[in-house]
Amino acid sequence: MNITDREHLRALFTKPTNYINTNRGDAYYRELYKKMEKRLTELRAQKPVREAEMKFEEYLKVWELTRRDFLKWVSATTAMLMLPPQFEPLVAQAAEVMNRIPIIWINIQDCAGNTEALLRSYSPTVDELILEYLSVEYHEVIMAAAGDQAEQNLEKAVKDFDGKYLLFVEGSIPVGMPEAFTIGRHPKTGVEHVKHLAEHAVAVIAVGSCAAFGGVPAAHPNPTGAVGVMDVVKGKPVINIPACPANPANITGVVIHYILTGEIPELDSLLRPKFAFGYRIHDNCERRAHFDAGEFVEEWGDFGAKNNFCLYKMGCKGPFTFNNCSIVRYNEGTNWPIGVGRGCIGCSEPNFWDVYATERPIADSPIQPPAGRGVESTVDQFGLGVLTATAVGIGIHAVASALAGKKDKEENKEEV
Amino acid sequence: MPKVRKVVLNRVEGEIQLKLVWEKGKVKDAFIIAPNFRGFEFILEGKPALDALVINPRICGICGHAHLIATTKAIENLYENAGLKIDIPQNARLIRDITLGAEIIQNHLRWFYMFVMPDFLKLEKSKKLKDFEPIKGYKWQKAVDFSSRIVKVIAIFGGQWPHTSYSVPGGVVCDPTTFDLTEAKSIVDSVVGFAQQEIFGMDIEDYLSVSSEEEYLKKSKNSDLKKFIFMCKKHQLDHAGKSYHRFLTVCDMEYAFSKGITKKKRRNFYVEKVREIDSYSYLTENGFSFDKNRYSWAKAVRYDGLPYETSPLSRRINSREKLFINLLKHYRDSYMVRMWARIDEIARLLYAMKMWIESIKPSEPFYIPPPADIKEISGKGVGLCEAARGSLIHQLTAEKGIIKKYNIITPSTWNLGPRCEKYLSPAEKAIKGADSQIKAEMILRSFDVCSVCTTH
Ligand code: SF4
Ligand code: SF4
Predict the structure, then answer these.
(1) Distance (Å, whole) CA B367 – CA A201
(2) Quick check: CB of A170 below 6 Å from ligand 1?
(3) Which residues form the NADH:ubiquinone oxidoreductase-like 20kDa subunit domain (chain A) (predicted)?
């Protein structure tokens, strides 16, 4: 059968893959609402990480943002986390207590692309909320301190916030050739660095495909033996936010989720948050109608390209790629690769450089369709509630799997 | 015995380490160490040539777009060397320049406001500098805002930034509408407004006609560039940080700069004269070596056997711009002049971007298919491109469309690479003689440090 035969394609891509239960019923959300309120009250009672911290309102003013800008962001974030609109006030409050959470951000074998994406995220998301309001205790790129002073700051932050900070890692870790990455005055290798900081963190967030799965450095023949954070860090929850670069909205999403619940969001089998990686690019693609109608771009610049036909024959990997950039887009929602007609390269999937890369049509590429290894085959390895002993483990967007259901019940019991 | 001190400059993406040897309160020798390595050139081997279009932008999250353009040009050159003429529509050339211009502008804005001006806060705690304080300062925030704005131009044509892959052999994949062009233009206009008001203190076109320092200081209202100049003078940075006074630029950009090399006189640039030397590098021709005298993952690059600086300053000089020729007469290639050239380029590129956007004709093609399938092509190709920090060279050998060898020479390799038997790298040379650690760091930073690019 011809690979681009419509029947064939339909069969391939309509297989059940990942379903997220976005409506778990009133009772569930009522319960969840109460829990979040409780958590926020607790956080509000805590002191900000840094003394003399400005109020959130003042930050908005400094950045010349209106309350309305902020509310717009609140509803977008609430929707992204797949919470019903009545949760908006909670999300707004979560942003306001963000300065209770210390952050350490380090770069290993990276290209700084994620930091860049973050700095360029839209107002008032991360510029203000993470970089500003969240207490970034250490970040090589934006920090004023350099050299020895920076190293001292880092060690101080580790001591002061032992067991409390979220550790963000950007870039892969060269375990095969530790000398490919050294840091600081007394050359510490990347491996040692990550292990040490992870040991004292509450959870580790791997930002970008390099930190998640090794990324480009790990592409064949993997000259430095690069791996992702989850292969190095043991005994701590790891959250992967892949893509190249990771979408800043997803970074904020994870943090907001942590603030609201004290827990890490529900993850898929690749440790990616389901709220962001629970569906395929293809499921929400603006060119999908053309795919269904069998209208494809056959060559760049052709009639199809001018009329935004589907890019599947040009090697688009949207049908295989779990990510939400078809919804969130990049650079303040300005655009995304499919928007300009380049197609998706599958950058949020492991090993995509070796198996998915560019324009090899599907017939020539060693890709397995995602059915069978999608989100529904996920096991929640860390359970929700790993992070705080008192926290109750209800995933905001638990998949309607028997497993998730059981877990909710059990943990609800504990609270009573 | 001279005193040795090691400084880690990790405020930049990745890290660069600086080892300083002191004698009588002055830097006697400086070693620039690029301690991080990923191995892109090895990863590219054996992959289809077109894969390089998505892999290479990931070399750097800050100048990834320049890597995309260099890759595209290298593949196009591969076709040409195989005797196949490739037509690149004028529209595509313009779009590539527009997006490259936007990337360079965002870099310079950030570099000046987020790294260079805050450095002066370490030299003096003056109230006048309050606005430049990282994160809290008003100017700092404005700069982040405007540098984020200008990259939206890249997103309009390229889909996202960082890491776009919309440029392909034969043109670009996007097909912008008049609406897209208008949007891009209005973004450029808003950044022009910022540059006029905050950076230059005068109309951009007036600024571009300025030919001497006195003229600028007289004509400009209160501006950040003026503040910068005064501060350089106050701290003797107008004469510090001199390097070889040799300049290299590999590619032209209409309305913005021209290529060439200048060693006393300006001459043509020939890529055949470029050589990499690995005698102080961990990465050698025969694999890795950690011998005692080796100290960096980067290699040294020489043109005709000599080290050259490549940077916005080189572009100014190779374009024979009067203002900078005059500045060189007084100050030579000092910290102040090198940084001024970076800031100057913001004006020049904004002006050029407006012209480029206006020259696009949406009804004409943006892509013309190459005359043959890449799978039929074997041979060599070179891609030359000017990136924010200077000249970028991609060299590729392919066999039936599969990459056999790929070599990347980044601007930072030119400027911040290690020494060879005969010469220090331009930045190492510039740091020699600095009288404090902070000034040594600042001089290094005037080259716009980028460690990931240095070693790739
Ligand atoms: S995942 Fe991509 S953006 Fe991130 S560090 Fe790696 S190459 Fe850069
Ligand atoms: S462009 Fe890609 S993601 Fe969009 S419909 Fe076509 S194949 Fe699917």
Answers:
(1) 50
(2) yes
(3) 111-257
Given a contact cutoff of 8 angstroms between Cβ atoms, the answer to whether A248 and A324 are in contact is no
What length does chain A have? 416
Is the CB of B67 inside a 6 Å radius of any atom of ligand 1? no
> The tokens of B254 are what?
């209409």
* Number of other CB atoms surrounding residue A30 within 10 Å: 11
Q: For ligand 2, is residue A256 a contact (CB within 6 Å)?
A: no
Strand, helix or coil for residue A244 = coil
Name residues 425-454 of chain B within 8 A of A (Cβ): 441, 452
CA distances from B165 to A149, A343, A359, B96 (A): 38, 10, 12, 11
- Rounded Cα distance between A100 and A256, Å, is 12
Q: Which residue minimizes the CA distance to atom 7 of ligand 2? A: A312
Those residues of chain B that have pLDDT short of 50 are 1, 10-14
* DSSP strand pairing (B3-9 vs B16-23): antiparallel
How far apart are the C-alpha atoms of A136 and B86, rounded to whole Å?
50
Q: Which residue in the block uniquely carries the two structure tokens 């799978």? A: B375
Is A266 near chain B, with CB under 8 Å?
no
Interface test with chain B among A313, A331, A353, by most B beta carbons within 10 Å: A331
Instruction: Report the residue of A342, A349, A352, A364 to disrupt the B interface, i.e. the one with the largest count of B CBs within 10 Å.
Output: A342
pTM of the model: 0.86
CA distance B9 to chain A (A): 5
Classify residue B196 by its DSSP letter. Answer: I
Cβ contacts of B125 on chain A, cutoff 8 Å: none
Are residues A399 and A378 in contact, defined by beta-carbon separation less than 8 angstroms?
yes
Q: What is the CATH number of the domain that holds B63?
A: 1.10.645.10
Residue A323 to residues A279, B216, B292: CA-CA distances in angstroms?
6, 51, 47
Question: Could you say which residues of chain A have pLDDT below 50?
Answer: 1, 3, 12-17, 122-128, 370-416
To the nearest whole angstrom, how far is the Cα of B328 from the nearest Cα of chain A? 31
Q: Whose CA is nearest to atom 4 of ligand 1?
A: A208
Q: Which amino acid is at B46?
A: G
ipTM of the prediction: 0.82
| Tokens matching residue A332 | 């303040």
Contacts of A132 in chain B (CB under 8 A): 135
Polymer length of chain B: 456
In whole angstroms, how large is the CA radius of gyration of chain A? 21
Strand partners, B35: none
CA dist A292 to A280, A303, A333, A387, B392, Å?
15, 18, 25, 44, 43
Structure tokens at B270: 């020939």
Helix (H, G, I), strand (E, B) or coil at A73: helix
Query: Tokens representing B305?
Result: 């056997």
What does the pLDDT look like over A16-46, one tens digit per residue? 445 566 778 889 999 999 999 999 999 988 8
Q: Domain residues for B389?
A: 3-454
- Paired tokens of B327: 């500045």
| Counted domains in chain B | 1
DSSP three-state, residue A48: coil
Q: What pLDDT is attached to residue A227?
A: 93
With an 8 Å Cβ cutoff, are A115 and B60 in contact? Answer: no
Q: Which residues contact B383 (CB under 8 A, 6 or more apart)?
A: B69, B70, B71, B72, B73, B74, B75, B76, B77, B393, B394, B395, B396
